[in-house]
Amino acid sequence: MHQGELLDDILDQYPEKPEYLIFLLQDIQSKYGYISQDSMGQACEHAGVPLTQGYSVATFYQSFRLDPSGEHDIRVCMGTACHLKGAQRIVDDLSRKLNIKSGETTQDLRYTLSTVNCVGACALAPVIVVDEEYKSGMTAKKMDKQLKIMENELTEDTKEQGNA
Amino acid sequence: MPDLNTATAIDLNQWHLKSEQDLIELQKRIIESTDPNRPEIVVCHGTGCLANASDKVSEALKAGLAKAGINAKVMPGIKKTGCQGFCSRGPLVLIRPQGLFYQQVKARDADEIIEKTLMRGEIVKRLLYKDPKTKKAIATEQEIPFYKLQKRVVLKNIGKIDPTDILDTISSGGYQALAKALTSMTPEQVVAEVEKSGLRGRGGAGFPAGRKWRSALTAIKKKGRPVYVVVNGDEGDPGAFMDRTIMEGDPHSVLEGLIIGAYALGAQNGYLYVRAEYPLAIKHLEKAMEQARCLGLLGENILNTGFSFDARINRGAGAFVCGESTALFTSIEGKPGNPRPKYVRSVEEGLWGRPTVLNNVETWANVPLIIRKGANWYSGLGVSNSTGTKVFSLVGKVNNVGLVEVPMGVPVSRIVEEIGGGVPGGAPFKAVQTGGPSGGCIPYSLKETPVDFDSLTKAGSMMGSGAMIVMDDSDCVVDVGRYFLRFLEEESCGKCLPCRLGLSRMREVLDRFSQGKGSEKEIDDLINLSQAIVDGALCALGSSAPNPVLTTIRYFKDEYLAHVQDQKCPAGVCKDLITYRIDEEKCTGCTACSKQCPSNCISGEKKKIHVIDASSCIKCGICKESCKFGAVLTV
Ligand SMILES: Cc1cc2nc3c(=O)[nH]c(=O)nc-3n(C[C@H](O)[C@H](O)[C@H](O)COP(=O)(O)O)c2cc1C
Ligand code: SF4
Ligand code: FES
Ligand code: FES
Known about the structure:
Strand order of the largest sheet of chain A: 2-1-3-4
CATH superfamily of the largest domain in chain B: NADH-ubiquinone oxidoreductase 51kDa subunit
Distance between the termini of chain B: 63 Å
Bound molecules: flavin mononucleotide, iron/sulfur cluster, FE2/S2 (inorganic) cluster
Number of strands of chain B: 21
Largest interface: A-B, 46 and 56 residues
Radius of gyration of chain A: 18 Å
Helix content of chain B: 40-55%
CATH architecture of the largest domain in chain B: 3-Layer(aba) Sandwich
CATH topology of the largest domain in chain B: Rossmann fold
CATH architecture of the largest domain in chain A: 3-Layer(aba) Sandwich
CATH topology of the largest domain in chain A: Glutaredoxin
Largest sheet of chain B: 5 strands, mixed
Structural class of chain A: alpha+beta
Distance between the termini of chain A: 20 Å
Low-confidence stretches of chain A: none
Mean pLDDT of chain B: 94
Largest sheet of chain A: 4 strands, mixed
Order of helices and strands of chain A: HHHHEHHEEEH
Oligomer: heterodimer
Mean pLDDT of chain A: 90
CATH class of the largest domain in chain B: Alpha Beta
Strand content of chain A: 5-15%
Radius of gyration of chain B: 27 Å
Structural class of chain B: alpha/beta
Shape of chain A: elongated
Helix content of chain A: 40-55%
Number of domains of chain A: 2
Number of strands of chain A: 4
Number of domains of chain B: 5
């Protein structure tokens, strides 16, 4: 997607020092949803570190992805409060419905499913976060509704693209 | 449109504070320019309330006010604050100056609040909190038991101030401790005051903060400067949100503490390491730093005293182990966060190999209080070996889920039963897990245990960072043990063998227990293996990991035996040991369960009793979740 694209606006913000490697990767990740080979190369070159260090950082920390992520990001809270209120049931349910495991993206690049630890809304457990929006007191039924909403949005999008 | 902001007419850019007097003058001006009788609507914008759409509530209030066109003189201000603590009752709206406390407010309640309360001075009764015991409605925050029984010192400003407006902080006395330290105390006196206060680190281990600072001074004598001060805002415990709330709701308290620490140690640079999932905390801290720089409270020549200090934020990238001091430092240096052996302590050789003082968010937030009110005042709170207060996130099977601050040394029962309102349904709690994945549980029989560093350790648990997870009879100790082990197994950095392999072995044993396999002897093996990990792991992630299992074996051995000897899970959690069944007396034939069942194994017509076919049931539990009548049982 952004292969070969210039990352200058991100690179320019940071001095050329190894300590800024994580900053660079975080900004790339948040702008593109993942770190492509090409941008990894540019980030490492800018920070002055070997590619191996770039990959060792990107694979050590959970927030980095090396593959494109889905259009919709679904994160299930697996914090302690949510665990006691059935978070595992919620992940299993989603896994079944999307036909992917946690950490994976659907083949059509629509959904990425992952887990996260306590998102700070324990009073509303079990909680999931869909594209930065919190959904509280999750149940299988609510999940169906949520998926339907996203499914509709997606078809609208494709329609628009088709018309354009 | 009339001005709805609560901020005063004071322009930040016109002020660059050059002395303590300037700061006090500014505070005076802010207070003078705010009309104490002007109504103020305070809407909680903490994570919990936001998740319940409190932003829609504040928008509706704003729109409603504009529409109602209240005379500009009494135009109320709308203030958005951090988490006010009582998250299970959110969204919360407070009306000042009366101090009315409205709970579970929806956007559609906005017009009624404006019409009745603001225009006619009446109370909207249905939005008041009702005491579940007395069934009486309570109008103000101070009278609600949840708040009345707390001692909010660190959290004092949260819920009162707008965290994005430094003037609000200054109006409530913010930065006066810094001014006092810089103008009338020597760095040595600051260190001595913190030592005398007895303040112990709030990040988990409870190391005395003053002693840490003193060792750093000794290290500096040997090695010279630079020295660094660092805030640990990684908050990795998966059931905790205290530090998050402090950073989001009162960022200046952390910053002020850090600057005071920097002055005491002669540091010119500081770092705030904040967990990746806390974007709002990062935003508020950034804004706080920017505003503090503008006023001359951070940066070059602070308050014209010649002391200069600045700090920057490092976002974590999702690794629990980076909360550990040496891992945190390597992460700031841009590398994978692997802990290193501590032959040399990090106060001597920390960040960039220099002397470094790392303290937790809440620890730093306590420092201004100590400097401003004195070590004697501070040590008067709490008990002798654990002074001050502690903030807990009270979650799980408890009525009043939220943030609670109490003096150290109050009994567990005070927090869980009196403040927390006990377990929903009224049964006694089973156990309270403190200290997260490194801690342990306190059973109901020990509910009078005082909550302080030493008493919790004696009971086999630990203070930890402050998560308190309440469990009831439907929670299984084997399952909770597996949960924490799985968490740590995933988070282990893999550098040392006892942790990397030991935790997986322990988890595998528990997996077998949860399937009804195993024997009493294996419980003993588990204890031995735990001891090996405690002795052999390099960092505290590994060496404290067996704690939850060890304490649950200590207090709930019967439950372990039920799994391995009788193939029963008394709490009805472990999938392999339970069967789902429908209670014929309670089933109304509503079909909710059969519609949701993913393996289509529930039969029965509408309004007729339903039956689960156990042979094709995958035990996902969705039927139980979807039944409104409690008719799905686990046996
Ligand atoms: C695996 C691990 C994770 C930790 N996570 C945190 C954390 O998230 N926040 C924190 O303040 N301390 C954490 N600590 C404790 C820190 O290592 C350190 O003791 C603490 O930040 C020192 O500050 P304090 O003395 O003010 O508590 C962790 C320790 C370990 C071993
Ligand atoms: S104890 Fe675990 S987390 Fe700590 S250094 Fe060893 S492997 Fe890494
Ligand atoms: S545990 Fe899920 S929000 Fe806290
Ligand atoms: S988020 Fe509003 S009370 Fe906690």
